[in-house]
From TrEMBL, chain A:
Lineage: Bacteria, Pseudomonadati, Pseudomonadota, Betaproteobacteria, Rhodocyclales
UniProt-recorded name of the protein: MtrB/PioB family decaheme-associated outer membrane protein
NCBIfam families named among the record's database cross-references: OMP_MtrB_PioB (TIGR03509)
Sorted UniProt keywords: Signal
Annotated signal sequence range: 1-27
Automatic annotation (TrEMBL), chain B:
Residue ranges annotated for the Doubled CXXCH motif domain, each copy included: 183-225, 232-270
Name of the protein in its database record: DmsE family decaheme c-type cytochrome
InterPro entries named in the record: Cytochrom_c_NrfB-like_dom (IPR053875), Decahaem_cyt-c_DmsE (IPR020015), Multihaem_cyt_sf (IPR036280), Multiheme_Cytochr_ET (IPR051829), Paired_CXXCH_1 (IPR010177)
Biased composition (Polar residues): 81-93
Pfam family of the protein (one): Cytochrom_c_NrfB-like
Amino acid sequence: MKTHSIFRPTLLVIALAAAFPMAPAWAEDDVAELTSPNTTEAALNLPYTDKANPLYRQYNGVTKEGVSTNVDVDIVRRRDADWFRVNARNLGLRTQEAGISYERQGDWSISLDYDQIPRFSPYEVSTAVSGVGSTRIVQPNIANTAAAANNPNLYDVTLKTEREITTLAASKFLLPGLKLGFSVKNEDKVGSRMSGVRGVTGTGANPANIYSAFLFAPEPINQNHKQMEATVEYTTEKYQIAAGFYGSFLGTKQNALNVIPGTNTALVAANLSPIALAPDNSVQQFYASGAYNFSKDTRANLKVAWSEGRQDDNFLTGQPTLAGIGGSLNAKVQTTEVYSSLTSRLSKDLKVLASWRYEDRQDKTPIRIFGTTTSAGVTTNYLNNPESHTANWGKLEANYRLGAGFNLTGGFDYSNKSSKEWERHDVSELTSRLAVSRTMGDSVNGTLSFAHSERKGSEWNNGTTPPILPVYLADRNRDRVRGMLDVAASEALNVQFAFEAFVDDYNKSTYGLDKGQGQIFSVDGSYALSDVWKLNAWYTKQTGETRQYAQGAVCTTGNGSNCTVNTFRTGTLVQWDANLKQDSDQFGIGLNGRVAKVDLGAQLLIFQDKNKQELSNMPATTCTNASCSTTGAVAAGMGVLPDTKYTQNTVKLFGMYPVSKATRVRLDYIYDLRKMDDYTWSNWVYADGTRVYVKPEQTTQVIGLSLLHSF
Amino acid sequence: MKFLRQLFASCLVLGALAGASVAPAADAPAGAKPAAKDLVLKGDAKCTSCHDESDEPKLLHIGKTKHGTVADGRTPSCTSCHGESDLHTNNPQKLKDRPATDRNFSKSSKLTAEEKSAACTTCHQGGKHMNWNTSAHANRDVGCTSCHQVHVEKDKVRDKRAQAEVCYTCHKQQRSELNRPSHHPIPEGKMSCSDCHNAHGSAGPKMLVKDTTNATCYTCHAEKRGPFVHNHQPVVEDCGNCHNPHGTTAEAMLKARQPFLCQQCHADAAHPGNVPAIRANMPNAVSSNIGPGYAQARGCSNCHTNIHGSNSPSNATSSGPFRFFR
């Protein structure tokens, strides 16, 4: 869009030069223009947005309807090997970014970049809670008997976070092949994100207290993250080495969120405030890496890294603690990582790859007692839980050229992870895979691959298999097939088919994830209608299904005492399972071309996503009122979660007209429809009266006028 | 093209006729052809005497790139990448279709991806390219020119707004997932695939820019790094246990909605294994306690607020930081 090149066929110029004496001067000018990167361009963009809908605005920084004027700039200057660049995008918007750099190619460079990345929540909040964005959330004053949902003092809040990132980078070649590099990245992130706190559980039958378990308490974010990296690299034809330092330092400006109750005692977040916020932390890593070419066909790589992470931020205050815990966690984690590999083409047709990666994470945080309980004379201590683990990943792969453009690739991937802190100390997985591909055909190329994985582990800690195995430690068999077919049907038409499917089988666990499967099919096509008109289209269908089992408590029998506060802990355990299904279809089409001097383009995206949460039948009887004084048939719809649906239809059109050699006018139009049918926030009311809305249908239209000029 | 070539030939003839009437330069041997002049790169006359901007790729545009910055003595010539290509240049057998250059990068090239990439790795094998030979790309017949356009001023894959389109050529699932409502801002152009992945290979898994998944995530989400007083085991182990960073329909890019995600590890007891429901379809006795709070709003995180880890030193045990309440 921003490029401005002028087509002047050089052959013609050269031919003219041969015919006419004046021609050589022309040719030199034209060659200079065709080979010069020098550019000075600016664009004034005037997009008018009719509605800043929550799903559309999420990352684009436009939060109000109307014109959001912004400017783009591109400047490139090259003189000999010196490059000077200035670029800016969206200046004036919350997504604005800019960069400036100077470089003497092959010698030194320096650059400074600035970037803003906003994120606005995809829903709207109406609340009576005050202090949003601060560390002091004040609950409204509502009488115990009042219906919180009817609180009249609601106001709208937009939850958002905004990042401002500034990066300074420089490099210098000290000798041919010897390069020093340095960068420092400073990021400030402020805002607040959706969060809450558990208050007290519901009391009485008053609807006002039904949701008193949950209070709206958005988490404030005000932090600074500095990352710096220094590297030295030495590169020769035979070997390459590098060493460096990476440091990451997070500073948070607050460490606690306090929730201040109002007058409704049912809303008091008893003993649940303050909430700890993320503490300062840091990591410093030293690493060295290298590669060596034993021959043009054999190469070895090695990387060794050692890092230390620390977290010694002051503990938040104002709450009961045990003596002896100190003022901070004083955490220290030391990690060693090694990666090595060897690739070799043993013969013209056979290539092998072997690699090994190792991680040793040692959490050396001192262990202390942070809480203690005594029951029936038995004291239980609650300790902090530092986690150390070691892991190995190995890969062995061979690729053989069968001829006629066909390749056969087979290999094994092995991983082993172990930790004394895990319920299962040792878990290993072996994947065997085989693929056949044809990648050098004139018109038809493709790949078909199969992989089978088996994950197993050691005995569980107490010697007996628990009823549920954490999903990332559980035994699992996984089969996967992938295929891709690329057909160049003609010079103008290219079609690509892709398919992938997997089947997971988690075994030896009574509860938790049992089985999973997924498929994705995609077809892409591109067609050159003419020299100037290009058409591309694609369709993707993705489906998935997982089944998992659980047992939980519901109120099935009993009286009021059985079905009040702790029912969910003491009620009869029922067995149930869930079958989670996902089904999405996406279709996209794009058309680009030119009519007379006007560049035209159109894009369409249609996306439909549907999720089903199918739950098995519930017990025949359950409590039918709040006090559980009566029981009866399962309430209609209980154990049923509605399907969720998401739809996006987006049309983008543009046209660009060259007013003159240097000036162009561009017109853009965007129609964006999103539909969200999701129970997540549907009819949800926090105990403090806060409501969260997701607009079920959101239509945004943007009409943009841009003026582009090359200086 | 045809017209241009005809015009070119006509002009040459015209030029020859015109030249015939002009006395030859005193120092030029009679009948000698003037040496072709390089236009961009050193020695490019071998190519530019026939090829120009009317061909694809537009030949002279390489002059706008770093490869065309001849003041940097390291820059290549045409033959550095394409080979001497004498058969192509001279066409000794006078074939209608000239033999291809020694190293041809077109889609119909008979070279393997590895052979094509060798033109690049001759120079680009240090720094961020050091692990190219072990990368999934290099070992799945993806060559440098599968993604990069060398002759153009603005290489699409190096533009963070356009890069994903290049990656989608093969990575259909990621394209599908990034269109979901909860995603990283790649479709909006505020991030690129290469913010997390080094397509040239790395020492980490999945060609991630850092040595582990978590270390990569912490470059932007350092507040999750801890360590905390109370660590959540799967968080420490791998962020990917719960999140799909390419996008999901569930909020926060969670792989599954709560409580189902949490119940993949916690579903064998009365409370964590409870039945999720929504306000509209649970009887009061259940909903007043926990039912809708399982499935709606933030799900399990409605109470277990600090699910990535709590740094609270509080001694409260039943409702405290040990269960990530605060």
